[in-house]
Amino acid sequence: MSQEVNLHEQVGEMTTHEVHHDEHHGHHHKETFITKYVFSQDHKMIAKQFLITGMIWAIIGGLFSVLFRLQLGFPNETFPILEDILGKWAAGGKIQPEFYYALTTMHGTVLVFFVLTAGLSGTFANFLIPLQLGARDMASPFMNMLSYWFFFIASIVMISSLFVQTGPASGGWTVYPPLSALGDASEGSKIGMDLWLIAMALFVVSSLLGGLNYISTILNMRTKGMSMTRMPLTIWALFFTAVLGVLSFPVLLSGFILLLFDRHAGTSFYLSDIFLASTQKALPNEGGSAILYQHLFWFLGHPEVYIIILPTMGLVSDVMSANSRKPIFGYMAMVGSMFAIAVLAFLVWAHHMFVTGLNPFLGAFFVLLTLLIAVPSAIKVFNWLTTLWRGNLRFTPGMLFSIGFVSLFISGGLTGIFLGNSTLDIHLHDTYFVIAHFHIVMGVSAFFGMFAGIYHWFPKMYGRYLNNTLAYIHFWITLVGAYLIFWPMHYQGLAGVPRRYLDFSGWASFNQFDGLNRFISIVTIMVFAVQLLFVFNFIYSIFKGRRVTSQNPWGATTLEWTTPINPGHGNWEGEIPEVHRWAYDYGKDGRDFVPQTEPISPNESPESKH
Amino acid sequence: MSTLLIIAILLLGFIVVFQIAKASEYVSVLKGEKKTFEQNNKINGFLLLAFMILGLIGVYWCNELYKGKILGEAASDHGEKIDTMLYITIAITGVVFIITQILLFWFSFKYQYKEGRKAFYYPHNNKLEVIWTVIPAIALTVLVGFGLYYWFKITGDAPKEANVVEITGKQFGWIYRYPGKDKVFGKKYYKNIDEGKLNQLGLIWDDKASHDDVVTNEAMYLVVGKPVKLIINSRDVVHDVGLAHFRMKMDAVPGTPTTMWFTPKYTTAQMKEKTGNPDFEYEISCDQMCGKGHYSMKGIVKVVEPAEYLLWLAKQKPNYVMSNPELESKPAVPVATPADSTVTAAAKIAGSNSN
């Protein structure tokens, strides 16, 4: 009895809550600049904050790669302009080894974490979860705001590490100890490394605040009729991503904390039997295991690559379906394969460690589980292909990037079958083959998915379109460039050329690729320039782009296109729409599309048992 | 100057492209949105097909261009297994690659927007989905099967008759140790390392087994056709013994020794002939980021005939002797009394250590 009363009370509360929201809606003009653009609690504004911060990071991270490609492509030339800008790091116009390693380290850190994790999930989870689920905002808008600001502070700390005298972290983005633990072993392991660790700790906090919010919003705040199996695949993808992040980032943090202890508190978690040539001294630490760190790191590190790629799989599925005017093929198989990928993500981390002296018997299990991931991945690819089959394809920029995504995902995914096989990993480990593999499958693919998302949802974000011609130029040069850069690297890898070498002139085994290295560097610069063109298009179109004139410009079924062209805080004026069907009724019964909000009519063919 | 010029050209190109893009938007307004869309769609559909065809030609061409540059035949028995595995994997993934890429771009081209075409409402098909779950699963089972078969052969125990060599990485170079006549490595402790006294591994002279150990930075000498087991150590940070020609690789972890074994198939001299390069050397590359000199951390492997190996080994002075030059200046000790000299020397070291 009392329970029932409680229930009613709750319902009553919820109603007042909503009423309050609607009231709030009427008072829009009271928002100040600070509450609207800076400390905003509107999920759409927070998404834009993540996106723009991510784009700034992407430019910085991309610029780093241009700089180190200059060294790789032109090892014998000097660029005096670099000395003018970078000072001692490019003494004599040549990039110094310490700086080269700082560049590669920061390139990896920035792009993996700050762009493709925060910039990607932060943008699309924040933007699309409430809009596609029919919620007025996130479960906790305040936590959501905190999530962005922790990310912002992490960014500031990371940026500041670029300006310290001994330089930023330079031990590779994986920062393996003992190298990263000992300032005497490397300049970058001095204060730069502390700043790196602090920035990453703040980043983990941001990621957890965001992730918990995404999960609770998806589980609790779906509108009436939006059952889990009616959610667009984007939401499913973001859901799995958030779960992966919440479960694995704390492990990374624990690894970092132990590393901080080893650096400053005299502990020996990772350190043992070390004699440093630079000081001619033996360290007191004994009994630690450098491999322990690698386990802790890759326990996040591997799920991390799925944290990057899963959201883009979701985005691509939705963009592709909408522009094929066809339902996504095998919705449940898509959800199931993402679930399988999310589970397997936790069981394969040691495939990064086949040659660390890991017990070969244990390695065998990791081979099996790793190659198992190829099965759900293959299902997804075939389902995308079937989605295109007999569609009526509109090559909007978002659609082109989705097709490019699938192409790159196939290419990069297949090379994963090489590396996941421990036998081949013996030869290919830490060579250019690895660089080629992960750049194609999670770097460029994820960017393609992200671009697909940006081009597709930009009209919803800003009420304007991006310029199409620039978009096509952007797509074609990026696609061709990505293959030109990374495809030949497989051959370098097969030749055993190691990663993280800045000069091959001392090596008889690896110096046969000078011409290729130069070619790759030139293409890199061109592709980077085209990304700047995209950024320009983005900024220009926010203010001057062609205006969106209809509520649903792509003819899509999902809820975000039922909001006003420029939705305010709260998203819908009046009632939140109710959902009556899944998100993929394109081309059903001869109709171009049926929005999710339309009730099932009695003479409609039965809802498919997807 | 040329840098500025390049930047200026890029900037100019930027402006031109932008102006064209802006103009094209106006044109599209004039032409009507629908017509522009149809035109763009046709162009992109065609480009997708062209990209696939040129891309596949490019893949073939790239292969022709570089297949000669990827090291040639493996120089160890394990390397051969790895190469076989590589060819199996390339064959299977290659077929999948070509089929899926062709389908992707062909579908894109074929089913591009046409006025009046109705997309086929096709939400799922259980049979198809089962097929493309099972086929990849079978293909992967084959790959896992072959892979693990070779993996256990390669990582299994080294044969008993294998030579044992210890290799230790440091920033930024390699140290090789041979056990000497007794075939036993002497004990070592990293706090004993004293480069001034030429004891770069911290050998414990109290342990008699260390007295005939040979330590060198020159090169790692291996016997052709004879299995060799490497005991891999690091003195400071994580390194990695990368032997591209032998297709072998193993991390060097401070505090945790690792091992790997293989059988070299060709001597360095034979490789010089095979490759037609009189300067050919087997190189050891450090394959794990280890600091600013990582890219220059090179070692040399000399694979030689057994007789040459014995000759080389005989010429090497044990580290013990090099580290204790006072022993060398003494007249050669008669063979009958080596035990005594060892004791005194050991006592001496123990005494100096306690200081």
UniProtKB/TrEMBL annotation, chain B:
InterPro entries xrefs: CcO_II (IPR045187), CcO_II-like_C (IPR002429), Cupredoxin (IPR008972), Cyt_c_oxidase_su2_TM_dom (IPR011759), Cyt_c_oxidase_su2_TM_sf (IPR036257)
E.C. number(s) listed in UniProt: 7.1.1.9
Stretches that traverse the bilayer: 43-63, 84-109, 129-152
Domain Cytochrome oxidase subunit II transmembrane region profile span(s) in chain numbering: 63-158
Protein's membrane topology: Multi-pass membrane protein
Pfam assignment, any one: COX2
Cofactor entry: Cu cation
Catalytic class of the enzyme: translocase
Cofactor binding mode and count: Binds a copper A center.
Principal subcellular localization: membrane
Keywords for this protein: Copper, Electron transport, Membrane, Metal-binding, Respiratory chain, Translocase, Transmembrane, Transmembrane helix, Transport
Family according to the record: Belongs to the cytochrome c oxidase subunit 2 family.
Protein name as catalogued: Cytochrome c oxidase subunit 2
